[in-house]
Structure formats: structure tokens, C-alpha cells
Specification:
By secondary structure, the chain is α/β, with parallel strands linked by helices. The chain has four domains: about 1-100 and about 510-620, Rossmann fold (3-Layer(aba) Sandwich); about 115-210 and about 400-435, no CATH class; about 225-400, no CATH class; about 630-750. About 55% of the residues lie in helices and about 10% in strands. The protein has 27 helices and 14 strands. The strands form four sheets. A six-stranded mixed sheet has the order 6-9-12-3-13-14, sandwiched between helices. A hairpin with a 2-residue loop joins strand 7 (about 485-490) and strand 8 (about 495-500). It is rod-shaped, with a radius of gyration of 61 Å. The protein starts with a strand and ends with a helix. The relative contact order is 0.12.
């Protein structure tokens, strides 16, 4: 370990540095805080001399001495020192990285090529080739199935368009929509051969094919009523009490006599035989032909006349009067009606025959004719069937365009359903899904094999592992879509190159990006070391130009990489993973965060690099006040207020610090009071808070002495020292009077 720096002479701001008496030795964790240009980078370069075992270029001879646990290392023997040191500073970045888009030094994290890794890589390549071949076959099958189905879709759509004689276009995408609508139940959309032809005829019909509406058919069936009237007449026998037996037994004679009686109403002699007609004989005849017999004969004659007019007549329509789609149905219905009418008329004639027999034999019992079923109902049903077809015909006639459109819709659905069935779309879909699943599996397998290849290649090609390590750290600091390190071949050698997303070289990087990339590179490069526990690590300001979020991420990287807990003496203790850690920073927030990392107390050291004269600096123990401050703002106030109150022995030391301290304090205070846009300057904020004239007095000395490249002005312009003192007094007085609550809070923070 490095225990302390005994002296530095002739190296930059360290003209003749020796540690103060009683200064503590370095510990396991060492944090060195100092403002810009105070000498931190010079210290890091001194550590780098121990790492590279060579002198710093461009510098005159100088002297230094490090006291280590194995002896001293100085300018005389540093080239043979045995310390294992790694340094991150501006020189490291300039030497190892290239931010202009060119290649730079790679990082090799593993040893020699592994034979096992080469064999595994070859196995992966063979497996990937087989997967690629199988994936290609699956892809070809998918493409062929899609091509065949597409060709079938196009051909079917053309056939439908031509078959239906559609004026509008019917393309494959139209067929797709129709097929989708019938996909669940294609059978329901399929038409019978007759319906198909009927709808085709209607779909193809033009306006000239429109037919006239037809009247409905009607037949008046009276048979049921006639039968009910005939039954009692046929069964009735007239009164025979006064009947002349000769007439009663000879129906023809009786009928002949009955017909002749009206002819002899005013005759004395028989017109047939010329014999005289006695009144007695006429009376006897009138008695034979009783009123009951006459009435019965009249009823039968009347009924017989009505039966004779009850025969039905049906003449079917000419088929040309109906649309072709209804002709066959009408033909069948007409045949059925004709058959029903014939059966009905046969029953009517049978009734007529029975009545005629009754007329011939009025005193005979004539049985009712045999009637099977209800012929009048059969006729009515057949007429209804005829009228249903006529109604459909009339609907088409009255709504010709709509009916034609409906026929076209049915035909499209029919042909789409036929397409679904013939092409076996359900089977094709199942096969396509299975192939797509296989393609997905092949893709995942290929990715897995490629990942395994990359893993094995990282062993074979050592720079790939280094690239991975850096990229992981860059992405943790800047995000996964920021910058990548790629390995490129330059004259047969592996090199690194910074690339943007999309494969473009990463140029025009921000300062924050450069810092994050450089620190990620350094952290990855540490893994080249066989045993980190033997390494002394020195990190100089790894957070330059980073915002507060990224500072926390850097702290996370440092904590994970360099600190861990171990079992010691029955307890868990925090220790560094490396042999010794030095962190140098000018950022108080970063200093505070590193300070919080364990180990602390006995195993940690906190130092301050500060200017002692305009041209010299010193490394001292961190003042207790600064070590205990929770923020840079409180520390700066303490420096300024101590100068105001205790001008004396340390006056020159404080004067060297005051311009930077005052500038930083004024920036923080004014921004806290007026948190405006970043383009608003500190001068504007101070003028707003204190007024124009006080602001000029405060800012004059502040601007003149607050930059390191002007620090020598303090020695050359002693007359302005009083301006610094006056400016501090005026500024603090203004805060005390104008902002008393803020002032009181600052005072309480230091008590």
C-alpha cells in the first residue's frame, strides 16, 4: 500500500511539498477533494508514473517520494517499483480512446484461445446451418401456400365475376371478405342446384327481362256444403200410405205419370189412349203423388242442379309469364292443384250420380258416395301453394332491382362458401399457423444458437468480451440507445470503435458522453488484471460534465466494483475489493457521496488539496468542518464568514481561496433565490437581489480573481485585495439584512 507522500519538489504547483506534522497516513479508501487547478490532476499523473514506470513527458526533472509498506518509491527507483497501480485521468482518456470516429485500443479480458470454445463454436455453426435450412424450407412452404392460395383467390374471383356477369369489379379482396362472413358455417350459404340456377338467371337479368305481376288464383269449393245437404235427401223415403202400388212398383211409369199429370189438368180424356179420365181416377193419382213426395222431388232436383254447377275448372299460367326461377315450382304446384281439382270433381260427380239415382227411385234409400279425406281442403292448400309462388313472382316484379341485388348477394355467399370448402381454408390456416409456429421456434433457436456463438466467440476473440463489458457499463450510465463499442478489424488486428445506433460512427460526442464512455472503458480495463486485490486504483474526477442522475450512477458503479463486506473477527466488515482506492474530485456532491461509501472511519482518509500561494499547493488532512458539511454551499459560507470574522494568521491562505469560493457561493445563493432560465447570468441575478451599484462592487473582484489562469494577478495587484475583503463584507451584510431567515439558517448550520 501507499502510506503517504513524503515530499514532492519541482512538479507544477508542488514546488516543495512536505506533509504537515501529524498528518495521517493513507487508508484503504482515500478521497482527495480540491477545487479546479489546485493540483489534483498533477497528483493523478504522479500515480500514473508508478503505473507506467516512466517519466511524465515534457516536464523538467523533479523529485518525489512515496512511502509504501514495502519501502520508499522515488524518482530514482520508480521504474523498478513493484506496485500494481491503475489510474483514470485525462491522460488515460487521451491515450486510450478516440472520440473522433476512428478506432482505438481494444480491451482483452480473457487468456489464450480455448480449444473447447472453438469446438463449441463449430458445433453452434453447424447447428445454426441446419436450423437455417429447416427455416428456409418452412419459409418456402409458407410462400408456396400463400402463392397458391393467392392464385386460387384471383382465379375464383374472376370466375365469379364472369359467371354472374357482374358489371362492377369483384376482386380477390372482395372474395376474402365474403369468405370470412361464411367461414363459420359455409354449408348454410350453399345453394341447391335449382336455387343456384334460379338466382343466376335473376342476377344476369336485365331491365328488359322484368315481367308483369300476376293475379292470384282462387277456386270456390262447395262440395262440403252440398254433401251435408245431400245426406238427408238421399236417406229420406216419402210417405207410402196412399200410394198406388202399380205406380210405386214401377218407377218409370210413376215418373211418366207424374210428368203427364200437368198435361191433363183440363182434359177429359187421356192424351195417350184417348180413354175418358174420371174425376175419381185423377183424385186417386193426386193422392198417390202426395205433397211430401213432390217436395222431396223438388229438393233433390234443386240440389242436383247446384251440384251440376260445382265442378271446378283450373287453367295453369303459361310458364313464360313467370320468372325462370319460379317456373319449376309453379309447374309442380299447378300439377298438384290439377290433381286436387280432379279428385274434387270426381267426388262432385259421384254426388251427382247418387242424386240422379234418388230422382229415379225417390222411395229408395240411396247411400252417400264415398268421399276420401277433405278434397276441398286439398284444393285450398294447392291454391295457397300456387299463390305463394305468384306472390314471390310479384315481389320480384315489384322490387326487381332489390331482388336482383339479393340474388347477387346469395350467389357471392354461395361461391365464397364453395371456395372455403374446396380450398379447405380451415386446413390451410391450421397448416399456416403450424408453419409460423415452426418459423418462430426456428427463429428463437437461431437466436439462442447465435447467442451461444457470441458467447463462445467472446472466448475465442478476447476483445469481444471487453466490448460487451464496456457496452454494459456505457448503457448503465447513458442508456441502451446511446453509444456502442464495436470490434473492427484493422490490418488483421482487433480494434474498438464507437458507433451510434444504426451503425454510424459516433462523432460529436458531448462532454458528458465522453466522460461516461471513458470511465466505462477504464472500469472494463481493470478486469484485465488477474487479481484486483493486488491493485492500487486512482480515479481522477470520473463525473466531469455529468448531471446529478449520472453522478449517482457513477457512484453505484464505484460501490459495486470496489467495495464489499467480508467476515472478519466474527463480524461483517466493509473493505475494498482492490488493494487501495484513491478518488480525486472537485465536485462537492460527488465527494459527499463517496464519503458515504463504506468503509469509513479508520480505514478511510479524507484529504484537501488547496493553494497555499499563487503558485503552490499542499495536500492536507480534510478540515473537520468541511468533512462534516452536508453540502458545498454550507462549506463555502463557512469559508467566507470565517474570513470575515477571523482575519489574521491564515489571511493569505484564505485570500487565495476566496475568489473561487465567493463566485461559487454567489452562483448558488442567487440561483436558489431566483431559479431562472440557465441563460440568465449570475450578474443579472445579483443585480436583481442587491441592486446595480452593490452588484458592481461585489462582482468586480469576484470576476477578476476567480479564474486560475489569472491567479497570479493576486500577487501583482495587491491593491485589489481590499476589494475582495470589501466585496465579501458587503455581500454577507446584504444577505444578513435583506434575507435574515436565510442568514439565520446558515449560522445555525455552523453551530
Amino acid at each position: 500500500m501507499i502510506e503517504r507522500i513524503n515530499h514532492i519538489r519541482g512538479l507544477g504547483v508542488y514546488a516543495d511539498y512536505r506533509p504537515a506534522a501529524g498528518m495521517a497516513d493513507f487508508g484503504m479508501k482515500n478521497v482527495i477533494y480540491g477545487w479546479n487547478y489546485s493540483g489534483k490532476t498533477t497528483l493523478s499523473r504522479l500515480f500514473a508514473m508508478l503505473e507506467h514506470r516512466q517519466a511524465l513527458p515534457g516536464l523538467p526533472d523533479f523529485e518525489f517520494e512515496f512511502r509504501c509498506d514495502g519501502g520508499v518509491v522515488n524518482e530514482a527507483n520508480y521504474q523498478s517499483n513493484t506496485l500494481n497501480v491503475r489510474v483514470f485521468n485525462a491522460d488515460f482518456v487521451a491515450t486510450n480512446l478516440n472520440f473522433a470516429g476512428d478506432h482505438f485500443n481494444p480491451i482483452f479480458l480473457l487468456g489464450e484461445e480455448s480449444k473447447a470454445a472453438i469446438e463449441k463454436l463449430a458445433q453452434c455453426e453447424r447447428l445454426r446451418s441446419k436450423i437455417a435450412q429447416a427455416a428456409a424450407r418452412t419459409e418456402a412452404a409458407l410462400e408456396k401456400a400463400a402463392h397458391d392460395l393467392g392464385a386460387a383467390r384471383t382465379a375464383t374471383a374472376a370466375t365469379i365475376r364472369e359467371t354472374m356477369a357482374l358489371n362492377a369489379s369483384f376482386r380477390a379482396d372482395h372474395l376474402d371478405r365474403e369468405a370470412q362472413s361464411v367461414r363459420q358455417n359455409p354449408g348454410a350459404a350453399m345453394l341447391s342446384a335449382d336455387d343456384l340456377q334460379a338466382n343466376l338467371r335473376l342476377a344476369r337479368a336485365s331491365d328488359q327481362d322484368r315481367l308483369q305481376p300476376l293475379p292470384s288464383s282462387s277456386l270456390d269449393t262447395k262440395l262440403r256444403q252440398l254433401l251435408s245437404e245431400a245426406q238427408p235427401l238421399l236417406a229420406k223415403v216419402p210417405d207410402l200410405a196412399n200410394a198406388i202400388q202399380a205406380l210405386a212398383q214401377n218407377a218409370d211409369v210413376e215418373r211418366w205419370v207424374l210428368q203427364g199429370m200437368p198435361l191433363h189438368q183440363h182434359q177429359d180424356d187421356c192424351l195417350f189412349c184417348a180413354s175418358p179420365l174420371s174425376e175419381e181416377r185423377l183424385a186417386e193419382l193426386r193422392t198417390h203423388f202426395s205433397k211430401d213426395l213432390t217436395t222431396h222431388a223438388d229438393a233433390i232436383a234443386n240440389l242436383l242442379a247446384r251440384v251440376g254447377t260445382s265442378v271446378l275448372a283450373f287453367a295453369p299460367r303459361a310458364e313464360s309469364e313467370l320468372y325462370a326461377s319460379f317456373r319449376e315450382g309453379y309447374r309442380d304446384a299447378a300439377a298438384n292443384l290439377k290433381q286436387s281439382v280432379n279428385a274434387y270433381n270426381a267426388d262432385v260427380l259421384a254426388l251427382q250420380s247418387a242424386l240422379e239415382r234418388k230422382v229415379e227411385s225417390p222411395r229408395a234409400l240411396i247411400p252417400m258416395p264415398a268421399i276420401h279425406g277433405k278434397p276441398w281442403a286439398d284444393v285450398a292448400q294447392a291454391v295457397a301453394a300456387i299463390n305463394t309462388i305468384i306472390a314471390e313472382h310479384n315481389r320480384v316484379s315489384n322490387n326487381f332491382d332489390q331482388a336482383k341485388a339479393q340474388a347477387i348477394t346469395k350467389l357471392k355467399a354461395h361461391y365464397a362458401a364453395d371456395f372455403v370448402v374446396k380450398q379447405q381454408l380451415d386446413r390451410l390456416d391450421a397448416e399456416r399457423k403450424a408453419r409460423e409456429q415452426r418459423r418462430g421456434r426456428f427463429h428463437r433457436w437461431r437466436n439462442g444458437v447465435m447467442a451461444a456463438e457470441a458467447s463462445q466467440r467472446a472466448i475465442v476473440h478476447k476483445a469481444q468480451r471487453g466490448r460487451q463489458e464496456i457496452n454494459e457499463r456505457i448503457h448503465s450510465l447513458l442508456g441502451p440507445s446511446s453509444v456502442n463499442i464495436d470490434v473492427v478489424d484493422v490490418d488483421g488486428q482487433e480494434r474498438f470503435r464507437l458507433m451510434r445506433k444504426g451503425g454510424r460512427p459516433a462523432t460529436y460526442l458531448s462532454e458528458g458522453e465522453k466522460t461516461a464512455i471513458a470511465f466505462a472503458y477504464f472500469m472494463a480495463k481493470l478486469k484485465e488484471v488477474a487479481n484486483l486485490a493486488d491493485v492500487i486504483v486512482c480515479i481522477d474526477d470520473p463525473i466531469s460534465s455529468l448531471d446529478s442522475n449520472h453522478i449517482f450512477q457513477v457512484i453505484g458503479v464505484i460501490r459495486e466494483a470496489f467495495f464489499h463486506q467480508v467476515q472478519a473477527n466474527g463480524n461483517m466488515e466493509w473493505r475494498t475489493r482492490c488493494k487501495q482506492l484513491f478518488v480525486l474530485t472537485h465536485n462537492f456532491n460527488f465527494f459527499s457521496l463517496v464519503r458515504e461509501l463504506k468503509p469509513d472511519k479508520k480505514k478511510a482518509r479524507y484529504c484537501l488539496v488547496k493553494r497555499t500561494t499563487p503558485t503552490t499547493s499542499a495536500l492536507v488532512d480534510m478540515p473537520a468542518a468541511l468533512l462534516n458539511y452536508s453540502s458545498e454551499y454550507h462549506f463555502l459560507f463557512g469559508v467566507l464568514n470565517r474570513f470575515r470574522q477571523e482575519r489574521g494568521v491564515e489571511e493569505m491562505e484564505l485570500l487565495l481561496m476566496l475568489p473561487n469560493a465567493m463566485r461559487r457561493f454567489v452562483e448558488l445563493y442567487s440561483y436558489g433565490r431566483i431559479p431562472t432560465h440557465h441563460e440568465v447570468t449570475v450578474d443579472t441575478r445579483v443585480e436583481t437581489l442587491f441592486g446595480v451599484e452593490p452588484a458592481k462592487r461585489i462582482l468586480k473582484a469576484l470576476h477578476y480573481f476567480s479564474h486560475a489562469n489569472n491567479i497570479e494577478r493576486l500577487a501583482e495587484n495587491n491593491d485589489l485585495i481590499c476589494d475582495i475583503e470589501a466585496a465579501i463584507n458587503e455581500m454577507l451584510t446584504l444577505i444578513q439584512t435583506e434575507d435574515p431567515k436565510h442568514w439565520q439558517a446558515l449560522i445555525e448550520a455552523h453551530t
